[in-house]
Amino acid sequence: MNHLFSGNLQDTMDYFNKALSIDRNFDIVYRVLRIGGKNACMYTVDGFVKDEVLEKILSFLFTKKPEDMPSNAHDFSKELIAYTEVGLARDADAVITQLLSGITCLFIDGYQDCITIECRTYPVRSVEEPEKDRVLRGSRDGFVETLVFNTALIRRRIRDPHLINEITQVGNKSKTDVAICYIDDRVDQDLLERIKTRIKNIEVDALTMNQESLAECLYQYKWINPFPKFKFSERPDTAAACLLEGNIIILVDNSPAAMILPSSIFDIIEEADDYYFPPLTGTYLRLTRFGTSLIALLLTPIFLLLMQNPQWIPDWLAFIQFKETVSVPLILQLLILEFAIDGLKLASLNTPSMLTTPLSVIAALVVGDFSVSSGWFNAETMLYMAFVVLSNYTQSSLELGYALKFLRIILLVLTALFNVWGFAAGILICLIALFGNKTIAGKSYLYPLFPFDGKKIGERFFRARIPHSSAGEHEKNNM
Q1: Nearest residue to 259 via CA among 127, 424, 440
Q2: What is the pTM of this model?
Q3: How many Å apart are CA 385 and CA 20, to the nearest integer?
């Protein structure tokens, strides 16, 4: 049963001092005051409050006399606190949650409501371009870990009263702020209500991994399918464009990324650079990205298949055959390199910036030249794996890159075991993974390719001119 304030300041302080473990928490600060002849107590979290704002509020309140004091907290907050964001709360659990999120709480003897003052501030890094979602041309700002800054970056781009930023909390312990952003006259209302209901019904202690934790709670089925169900972006311009197309954006406090839904495979491959260049250049970049994604998936399995069946190689491709033989079977070479590349990625993540150059030199010598000269790998194998690695880096979605990697490994293993029939079975598994996947809206993951829509598929592959008036032009959530 929730505790309600009685208006007795001493009882309220006893309850809060115990509930908040004041004697053990050095960063939860409380101060006993006297305002207008009444005893008062203010609770704050050190490091979450704008000291200069709170100082001005208290300086004004200290000048009040007993005859200036209203009879209730509502009138006090309206008449004596010259600040924009002021609220009232009577339930103790709600007050504790607000206090721990950084809001200043003021209790005054005789008042049954807590006066909440929203003068908090969070430690935050600068709004700079994200490392992963870089563009050749366009905006250089990016989302940060503070939720209110992220909504402001979107609001700056969409000055429309129909843009709605709803906030809720998820996590029994963490009570993490989650914002649901959408444009009211463009969003799929049925999907929106389903998303709200799913978020409301989430029962977890905390969103430990931010968006990933939330994504796994929202989409709990078909986990074995490697293709990503959501698009993530750290760019506010990308989030704003998706909102204008009728999508829903979910922002999680402490996370510098927006979760965009629903998202098809074409949405995930699409990038901001496609639209920051003229249509011809944008189309070229988009088709290049599609082509390199196919190369990343099929290049090494096809190479393995041809090496197992050299009689299929035409004369004009005879140069792709091995010039030298090594003791390690080709399939083992390819699998070892698959895992070695991931090992180098992990090593680069954990290497201090001052040592990245030595690491690159060591990787080039050991994994490159020495591994070939020592007889472990063929030069051709190293070359084709290098193409695969470069192809993976042409699109920004890490989730899609690993999905292609897992399917490529399945193709390699099946091809090595069952030759052409294994290759065919691997291709079938890839198609089943694509066609069997669904967006969170329950629609096809391959729309507009399946079900086929000629006009929309043309727009997906070829970058058209941006219309002068987009109102009502975007088809909503057909994925």
Answers
A1: 440
A2: 0.87
A3: 56
